[in-house]
Write a structure and sequence with these properties.
76% of the residues lie in helices and 3% in strands. The two termini are 15 Å apart. By secondary structure, it is mostly helical. The strands form two sheets. It has a two-stranded antiparallel ribbon. The relative contact order is 0.20.
C-alpha cells in the first residue's frame, strides 16, 4: 500500500516538474533534450540500483563516487596498455575493483559490526587518494587519456537510436527488480532491513546476505565507473565527486526508507528520473548552480521527512 502511494506521489511530482520546466524552457520537451536527460541519469541510475539494495538492509554507502573514479582509471590504464584485449580487461578490472571494495565494506559491516557510515566514509577517503596516486604514477597527471576507439563503445555509441549507457541502465534496473521481487535473496534483503534479529532467528544468514549486498553494489559501481570513463574518453581522478548525493537522493526520493525494509527498484527508477529532470530543467532555466544544490538538498529533506511521517 505504501509503495503504491509513493508511486503515485513520485509520478505526480515528475509530471508537475516536467510541466513547469516546459513552460520555463520550451526546449525542455524536445527529443534531443529528453535523450540528454536519460543519458544524464544513466550513471546515477546504475549506482542507484546498488544503493537501493544497501539501503533496504538498513545500510548506506558513501564511497561510491571515489570507488567509481578508481575503477574508471584502472579500466583506462588496461585499455591503453594491453592492445586489442585491453578494453575487455579494463571492464573486468573495473568491476573487480568495485567488487573488492564492496567486499571490504560488506565484511566490515557484517562481520565486525562497524557502522556502514563510518566504513564507507573511510573507503571514500582512501579510494579518492588512490585515484590521484594511480593516475599521477601512470600518466603524470590527474587523468588517463588517449584511449583506443573501442573503449568508447560503452559510453558514446548508440544502439537502435538509444545511447548504450541508457540501455545498460535499463538492463540493470530490470535485473535489480527481478532479484528483489522474484528471488529468495531479494526477500532476505527486505527481511534484514525490516528486522535483522528476527531474520536471523528465522534462519536467514544475515552476515552473508549483507556482505553480498555490498559486493553487488560494488559490482555496479565498477560497471558505472568504466561506463563513465568510456563516456568521458578518460579515467579521471576527480570523477564521481558528490555522486553519492545524487544517488542517495534518487533512492530516497523514490520512497526507499533510510531505516531499511521498505522500497523498490521501480520507485528508485522514478526517483532517478525526478532528479534527472530537476537538474536538467534547472540548468535550462538558467538557475544558479549553487541554488540548484540548495534545491536538491531541499528535495532530500522533504523526502526524508515524508518517510518519517509515513512510518508514524
Amino acid at each position: 500500500m505504501v509503495n503504491n502511494i509513493s508511486k503515485y506521489i513520485i509520478l505526480i511530482a515528475i509530471v508537475i516538474e516536467a510541466v513547469v520546466f516546459a513552460v520555463l524552457a520550451p526546449q525542455f520537451l524536445t527529443v534531443d533534450n529528453l535523450i540528454n536527460v536519460a543519458l544524464s541519469i544513466a550513471i546515477t541510475g546504475i549506482l542507484a540500483v546498488g544503493m537501493t539494495f544497501v539501503i533496504l538492509t538498513g545500510g548506506i554507502d558513501l564511497s561510491i563516487g571515489s570507488v567509481l573514479a578508481v575503477a574508471g582509471i584502472v579500466a583506462a590504464i588496461c585499455a591503453k596498455s594491453f592492445g586489442g584485449i585491453g578494453v575487455l580487461l579494463g571492464i573486468a578490472a573495473a568491476i573487480a575493483v568495485g567488487m573488492t571494495t564492496g567486499l571490504i565494506n560488506g565484511l566490515m559491516v557484517s562481520r565486525f559490526n562497524v557502522p556502514p557510515f563510518v566504513v564507507t566514509l573511510a573507503i571514500l577517503t582512501i579510494a579518492r587518494g588512490l585515484s590521484f596516486i594511480i593516475a599521477e604514477r601512470y600518466a603524470g597527471s590527474t587523468s588517463v587519456s588517449d584511449l583506443p576507439p573501442a573503449f568508447a563503445f560503452l559510453g558514446r555509441e548508440k544502439v537502435f537510436g538509444l545511447p548504450v549507457p541508457v540501455i545498460l541502465m535499463l538492463a540493470v534496473f530490470v535485473v535489480g527488480w527481478f532479484l528483489l521481487q522474484h528471488t529468495r535473496f531479494g526477500r532476505y534483503v527486505y527481511a534484514i532491513g525490516g528486522n535483522s534479529e528476527a531474520s536471523f532467528l528465522a534462519g536467514v544468514n544475515v552476515k552473508s546476505v549483507t556482505t553480498w549486498v555490498y559486493v553487488l553494489n560494488g559490482f555496479l559501481v565498477g560497471l558505472a565507473g568504466v561506463t563513465l570513463a568510456s563516456r568521458l574518453g578518460a579515467g579521471l581522478a576527480n570523477a564521481g565527486m558528490q555522486y553519492e548525493l545524487d544517488v542517495i537522493a534518487a533512492v530516497v526520493v523514490g520512497g526507499t526508507s533510510l531505516s531499511g525494509g521498505r522500497g523498490s527498484i521501480v520507485l528508485t527508477f522514478f526517483g532517478a528520473v525526478f532528479i534527472g529532470i530537476l537538474n536538467n530543467g534547472l540548468n535550462l532555466a538558467g538557475i544558479d548552480p549553487y541554488l540548484q544544490k540548495i534545491a536538491l538538498g531541499g528535495v532530500i529533506l522533504i523526502a526524508v521527512l515524508a518517510d518519517q511521517l509515513t512510518k508514524r
